Task: structure prediction
Amino acid sequence: MSRMHIGGKVVGNAPVKYKKHNNKYTYAD
Result:
């Protein structure tokens, strides 16, 4: 599953790896 990191807020568990995607930052658990 992949969660999103938007507007400096983290949705879900703590971020592990960040990946730039368009104007949003996503990372995979």
Summary: The mean pLDDT is 56. DSSP finds no helices and four strands in the chain.
